[in-house]
Design goal:
Blueprint: H1 3-19, H2 34-38, H3 41-53, H4 58-68, E1 76-78, H5 85-90, H6 107-129, H7 135-159, H8 181-196, H9 216-230, E2 234-236, E3 249-251, H10 260-277, H11 285-293, E4 303-306, H12 316-320, E5 324-325, E6 341-343, H13 357-361, E7 362-363, E8 365-368, E9 377-380, E10 387-388, E11 412-415, H14 416-430, H15 439-449, H16 454-462, H17 468-482, H18 488-495, H19 498-513, E12 525-530, E13 536-541, E14 563-564, E15 596-597, E16 600-601, H20 609-614
Parallel strand pairs: 5-8
Antiparallel strand pairs: 1-6, 2-3, 4-11, 7-10, 8-9, 12-13, 12-14, 15-16
């Protein structure tokens, strides 16, 4: 067994032992070889655990991929005015020596470490596990195939073309160039089709009882996600020019096997199987996100799979939760926590009346101990600073945040509403009569959003015509449903809408800030309440379209306890400035118009210098890097 295999199998055993609930009484690690590991389901499972363990590495998903992939988009933006290497990433102007990502243990290398661990498991199970006759080994093979597809999906989303590695590394394959992503898509789709035969639905086996392990629902949902990506648009080098510094252009694949005609029927069949047989359901929207913050991993609800950070690992709420300024009862540290990014300010007004998702997803307050009494209260954050209300330290009640850079919250990677909306999009394209051209699926998502007003949801969906109008409704619905979950960038790329939506949103932000804006000159009132869990809440008056009375500081909203928003001198202050200074501390710049290829923003990250240098000349960037 060569040294590379020894390293990764050793890592698998170590990672597995750290997750085991009981001690192993077996031979020492030094005597393990492929046959020993992959003929034993327990040891094989530990090797599978090593794939998951990669996500927690410091500069991989934990600290570099998740904090930086996915924004800016037309619904999410970076809350900072500093033009530094972080802004360079989010404004689609990244360079190969970016200080945040040009590190040896960055996302590119870490994801390929996960791919290698998956390759070792797949190769070992096929050789020594007898999956054809041992269902328990077949299930582990299916899990390894699915997790390799997850790792590659993350690579494809961030880097575009990357090397195709589907066998364990050997001396002959240590250094290889990038491959056309069509090669990778076809392999992953075939892998998932194989995995379908091996895996269990959520809650149907010991391995699928929790959402931090792969299930058949994840495999089938991922098949559809990859089918949509593969058959959609993206920035690609010209045919046969991958890895030659070719700038590329926005185009579809030329491979008929990856066309909508070929993939859409297969993807819809996979999604329908999840809908009909997966045992999943849509949860109450608030309870869904409370469960995420409380790290509920129970399978068979809405969430299909989460990034499996341990309870003391991962920087999700640390990065994206509603901001806590200094020490609060929810964030016991003097440093600020949360609020690195948030919804673009215009998104709040794109939700319809009675849509329960709006006030859960778009939060315009932050926590601060203004009175110095040791207890923080929510306070209006300023119109430029909106936060993802799906992530809240105050909702971490069964697993409270204890400080430090890691909070343990497990980012949601796929949930049932994504299954329904992918099915709706594809069914509309295929004119699927069984689902009323996809309307039945969209209606389920919309009815949940309009809880208590389901008739409005039904009327909206029923009025849509099949074709472009329904497609545009899906584009909008995915924005409202998934803001802050960072699916948007990949969606916009495959729809060929990334440039248009970025440009449209910059205009919308400038219009909101203009002196003639509908909201310019408004004041804001707020008052406090208490939720069912005893946590202080804040209600605001002056944000909604019809609250025009807020243009006068003399107006007093009906009811008790209202206070007017004041400036640092304690004077009533316009929450929406009418002098064009609404975003004076925030640059309205979602992308760098000077960094383009073929007139489009560069959709991908480059493979960074540290990886290029260590490739011994094998790796070459495209796309103008």
């Amino acid at each position: 067994m060569n040294i590379i295999r020894s390293i990764f199998i050793g890592a698998g055993i170590i990672a597995g032992l750290s997750l085991a609930s009981c001690d192993l009484t077996t031979e020492s690690q030094s005597t393990f070889d492929d046959r020993t590991v992959f003929a034993d389901p327990t040891l094989t499972e530990y090797q599978i655990f090593s794939i998951y363990e990669v996500f927690g590495h410091t500069n991989g998903h934990r600290g570099r991929y998740l904090p930086w992939y996915g924004y800016n988009t037309d619904i999410e933006w970076y809350i900072s005015n500093t033009q530094d290497d972080k802004a360079q990433i989010v404004q689609y102007a990244i360079t190969t020596n970016n200080s945040q990502l040009n590190v040896p243990d960055g996302p590119y290398n870490e994801l390929f470490a996960g791919v290698e661990r998956a390759n070792l498991a797949i190769d070992g199970i096929r050789k020594y596990g007898d999956p054809a006759n041992r269902p328990e080994m077949a299930a582990l093979l299916g899990e390894a195939l699915t997790m390799r597809a997850v790792m590659y999906t993350e690579l494809l989303k961030a880097f575009g073309e990357v090397p195709a590695r589907f066998e364990p590394v050997s001396p002959a394959t240590t250094y290889i160039n990038k491959a056309d992503k069509d090669v990778i898509y076809k392999q992953l789709l075939a892998d998932l089709e194989e995995a379908f035969d091996y895996m269990a639905w959520p809650g149907e086996s010991s391995a699928t009882m929790s959402t931090d392990r792969a299930s058949l629902a994840l495999a089938k949902g991922l098949y559809a996600r990859l089918a949509l990506m593969a058959s959609g648009y993206s920035l690609r080098p010209e045919e046969g020019m991958v890895g030659t510094k070719n700038p590329g252009r926005i185009r579809l694949s030329n491979d008929e096997a990856l066309s909508k005609k070929t993939l859409y029927p297969k993807a819809l069949a996979a999604l329908k199987d999840v809908i009909d047989n997966g045992g999943l359901e849509l949860m109450d929207y608030e309870e869904l996100w409370r469960s995420v913050n409380n790290m509920d991993l129970t399978a068979g609800k809405e969430i299909i799979w989460v990034i499996p950070f341990s309870n003391s690992r991962g920087r999700w709420n640390f990065t994206f939760a509603v901001r806590n300024n200094g020490r609060t009862q929810f964030s016991p540290t003097d440093s600020n926590r949360g609020g690195q990014a948030g919804p673009v300010p215009t998104l709040y007004w794109k939700y319809g009346e009675n849509d329960v998702r709006r006030d859960i997803s778009c939060v315009n307050y932050e926590w601060e101990d203004k009175d110095g009494d040791g207890t923080a209260e929510p306070y209006p954050a300023g119109i430029a600073n909106w936060y993802f209300g799906k992530y809240r330290f105050e909702w971490m009640q069964t697993n409270p945040y204890t400080g430090g850079n890691d909070d343990g919250v497990k980012p949601v990677w796929m949930r049932y509403s994504d299954i329904l909306l992918m099915a709706a999009e594809i069914a509309n394209e295929l004119k699927d009569a069984d689902s009323n051209n996809g309307k039945d699926y969209l209606k389920l998502v919309r009815r949940r959003a309009y809880k208590g007003h389901e008739d409005k949801a039904d009327a909206y969906v029923d009025a849509l015509t099949q074709g472009d109008e329904f497609f545009n409704a899906i584009v909008d619905e995915r924005a409202l449903e998934f803001v802050g979950e960072f699916l948007r960038k990949a969606d916009l790329i495959r729809w060929n809408l990334l440039d248009k939506k970025l440009q449209d949103e910059e205009k919308a932000l400038n219009n909101l800030a203009a002196e003639e804006s509908l909201y310019a000159g408004r004041y804001l009132w707020y008052r406090y309440g208490t939720d069912a869990y005893g946590v202080t809440t804040i209600e605001m008056y002056g944000l909604d379209d019809d609250q025009v009375e807020a243009e006068s500081s003399a107006y007093q909203p009906a009811g008790q306890g209202w206070e007017i928003y004041t400036n640092s001198e304690g004077e009533a202050s316009k929450y929406f400035p009418d002098d064009g200074s609404m975003f004076e501390k925030k640059t309205i710049k979602l992308y760098d118009a000077g960094k383009t290829v073929d007139g489009h923003v560069i959709q991908w990250w480059p493979i960074f210098e540290t990886s290029i240098t260590s490739s011994q000349g094998a790796l070459v960037n495209d796309y103008g890097f």
